[in-house]
Amino acid sequence: MILIIDFGSQFNQLIARRVRENKVYCQIEPPTITISRIRALAPEGIILSGGPSGIYEKHSPKVTKAVFDLGVPVLGICYGMQFMVGALGGAVHAATKREYGFAELAVKAQAKIFKGVGKKTTCWMSHGDSAETVPPGFKIIGSTENTKIAAIADTRRKFYGLQFHPEVAHTAEGTTMIANFLFDICKCRPTWSMAAFAEETIAEIRERVGEKRVILGLSGGVDSSVAALLIHHAIGRQLTCIFVDNGLLRKDEAKKLKAVFAEKLQLNIRFVNAAGRFLKALAGVADPEKKRKIIGKIFMDVFEAEAKKIKGADFLAQGTLYPDVIESQSAFGGPTSIIKSHHNVGGLPAKMKLSLIEPLRFLFKDEVRLLGKTLGLDDDMVHRQPFPGPGLAIRIIGKVDRRQLTLLREVDAILLEEIRKAGYYRKLWQSFAVLLPLKSVGIMGDKRTYENIAAIRAVTSVDAMTADWARLPHDLMGRISNRIINEVKGVNRVVYDISSKPPSTIEWE
Ligand code: XMP
């Protein structure tokens, strides 16, 4: 495995991605990691990441210098290179010329890290400070116009430093350099695969859980579904999934979930129908935040009451993903395992004295999808668009009642059917309908109608932080609108949302 020390760069996840794309397993750890923990991980190589600090700043992040005595290759990137220079006896100075953006790197000397790389190659820089002198044993292997010491190597000890960022796509031959580090320098083998990860994780879960029981809140979303399936493979019916039907789900959602997870995959699931409780509490409430709070609180109560019925449950499993774990561990402190507020079971482990199992905590979203596929989950489930915890309640603007829920379910089902048929489902981050608390006049046959308005929202996004409204083909939009107005009694007008995020959000409430 490759150990990545997180000095706080915004590109750290990219370094991890690049390593894993080469089928080599890696983990990102904070600089406070101890040398004994590093030894236990037995890395084949260490990457010191970039970061926003200067190495001489008082509170700049530092990793134990013992990493240089392990006999393991080290690659320092940007701040990581400067840290290595400082730690091994070279000097760093605040650059007179800042270098930001593209630069041409001239390769000055043969080194394994540049195997197959052109003599002149484009690299991407983002730094103020730079190395002034190289430590004993190092030589300069690459320079740019502004940065003489842009790449260094101590080939005997297998230490390499790159002032630029090989992990970003703008560094034209960065992937070659990373592959060189992994295979030529660290001698890693490309053996990490999802099947291997699944096998290892299943064995670990089995060992940790023993004869005990695990509970998991199954929502039907990709993360909780894959986590459930993985744990099910490990401990079978010692896992109890709790699925709460809050009455705010899409059409046939509970039915579909039952068919896939309980019947086909044979998971042990408790279905709790709490629709009445949720709807009663929501009656007459129009404020979005109030609606969210009510839903969160009831979910927690229902889940807890159900969990308590499961005797001997010592563990709570969650589908927490790697980006959340990385975000929660600061570059300057130790890792602090956060519990995602996810399905609002956040407070439960402490309250019920449960230990957490987070089998996906080292995976990125696309890796989770791949794992789901490896475990035999249908494509339909693996590639589901996200659906918010508060469900349709935040897609009915204002007060929520059963009639509106039925209307919105029908509208949403037609929309999704047409989006799927047109081959757009996977191209979109989300596509859904919103029911507005407005009526407008229409004409159907010879009759005047006065009915609801449905808004269609379809967005593209990579991480939901920003999103753009999808440019759906007009004929597809036409079909969606026609079908909704013709087939759903109670809706006589369809509008399309053309706002991006920011300044709008994806959901309307
Ligand atoms: P916004 O509307 O903030 O949404 O642009 C960003 C993403 O988060 C989803 N979302 C939620 N997911 N519980 C969830 O599990 C929630 O309360 C919630 N609110 C928004 C939304 O669907 C989008 O993918």
Which helices and strands, and how do they pair?
Blueprint: E1 2-5, H1 12-21, E2 26-29, H2 35-41, E3 45-48, E4 74-77, H3 79-87, E5 91-107, E6 120-133, E7 139-143, E8 151-154, E9 159-162, H4 174-185, H5 194-209, E10 213-217, H6 222-235, E11 239-245, H7 253-264, E12 269-273, H8 275-282, H9 288-308, E13 313-317, H10 322-328, H11 348-351, E14 355-357, H12 365-374, H13 379-382, H14 402-421, E15 430-444, E16 447-460, E17 468-469, H15 474-487, E18 491-496
Parallel strand pairs: 1-2, 1-3, 3-4, 4-9, 10-11, 10-13, 11-12, 13-14, 16-18
Antiparallel strand pairs: 5-6, 5-7, 7-8, 8-9, 15-16, 16-17
Helix pairs in contact: 5-6, 5-12, 6-12, 8-9, 14-15
GO cellular component, one term: cytosol
Keywords: ATP-binding, Glutamine amidotransferase, GMP biosynthesis, Ligase, Nucleotide-binding, Purine biosynthesis
Pathway: Purine metabolism; GMP biosynthesis; GMP from XMP (L-Gln route): step 1/1
Question: Would you give an account of this structure?
Answer:
There is one protein chain. The protein is globular. Helix 5 packs across helix 6, helix 6 (222-235) crosses helix 12 and helix 14 runs antiparallel to helix 15. The strands form three sheets. The chain has a nine-stranded mixed sheet with strand order 2-1-3-4-9-8-7-5-6, sandwiched between helices. A five-stranded parallel sheet has the order 12-11-10-13-14, with helices on both faces. The chain is of the alpha/beta class and 509 residues long. The chain folds into three domains: 2-185, Class I glutamine amidotransferase (GATase) domain (Rossmann fold, 3-Layer(aba) Sandwich); 194-382, Rossmann fold (3-Layer(aba) Sandwich), CATH 3.40.50.620; 395-496, 2-Layer Sandwich (GMP Synthetase, Chain A, domain 3), CATH 3.30.300. Residues 330-344 have low confidence and may be disordered. The protein has helices at 12-21, 35-41, 79-87, 174-185, 194-209, 222-235, 253-264, 275-282, 288-308, 322-328, 348-351, 365-374, 379-382, 402-421, 474-487, and strands at residues 2-5, 26-29, 45-48, 74-77, 91-107, 120-133, 139-143, 151-154, 159-162, 213-217, 239-245, 269-273, 313-317, 355-357, 430-444, 447-460, 468-469, 491-496. The protein is 33% helix and 24% strand. It has 15 helices and 18 strands. The chain binds xanthosine-5'-monophosphate. Xanthosine-5'-monophosphate (XMP) binds next to loops. Xanthosine-5'-monophosphate binds at residues 292, 386, 388-390, 430, 464, 501, 505-507. It catalyses: XMP + L-glutamine + ATP + H2O = GMP + L-glutamate + AMP + diphosphate + 2 H(+). Pathway: Purine metabolism; GMP biosynthesis; GMP from XMP (L-Gln route): step 1/1. This is GMP synthase [glutamine-hydrolyzing]. It holds the Pfam family GATase. InterPro entries: Class_I_gatase-like, GATASE, GMP_synth_C, GMP_synth_GATase, GMP_synthase, GMPS_ATP_PPase_dom, NAD/GMP_synthase, Rossmann-like_a/b/a_fold.
